[in-house]
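Feature request, filed as a ticket because there's no other form

It would be nice if the structure record came with a short human-readable summary line next to the tokens. Right now we just get the raw output. Example of a typical job, pasted below so the devs can see what we mean:
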Amino acid sequence: MSLTTKTLGRGRRVAAGSLIAVTALTLSACQNGTDSASSSHSSSAAAPATSGANGAPSNGGGGPQSAGNAPRPSGVAKPSAGRSGVPNASQANPSTMTASDRCTADNMSLRLGRTDIGAGNIRVPLVFTNKGKKACSLRGFPGVSLIQRDGSAVGTPASREGAGGGSVRLQPGQSAHAVLHTVNEGVSDIPCWKNSQIVFVYPPGSKESMTTNSGGLRVCGGTFTVTSVETGVPS
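Raw output as currently delivered:
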């Protein structure tokens, strides 16, 4: 074999080897590029788990957990279904009178009548007198509280006692009354309230108040009530 032939053969083998190497490198680069592209477009793919010391799967030292192992979000508790509503308001005194016929604070005077004490009970008439120039009517319960001169309340307002009663017609100068009721000290273990100075009153059906001197009226035994108005003044 000539020297030229040997040189050509060796050249072909080197060229072939180089071509194989280049081809292998190209295939490897293409494969790596494909994997990278797949990874960048699959944002939801879980990170590959690595094996921990005991062979159990690990999340890669603080990486995101797989969806199957993620804790469920805490549920929001529903509000309890309580009853809605408002506190019961005091019912207005029943009345068929028109506003022009009703006795108001402007056309009446107010005073306490003579105190009646008996059998451990104390009853005091609350007297309304028509001081106007025409007849008017009252019906139902007055609202009554005891207060001090500075306006501070003594105890709680009087509760209603007895039936509502009918309408009382007052000619000019005529009077009607309701009865305040409490008990003597010592009748009950419930302590007495401190002495009052003023009786604060809303006439039946009126939003305007009236006052009169209480004469030091003191409530004992937790009893403080008022009746509906009735005609006349107790003797």
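Something like this underneath would help us a lot:
The radius of gyration is 50 Å.
The first helix runs from residue 3 to 41.
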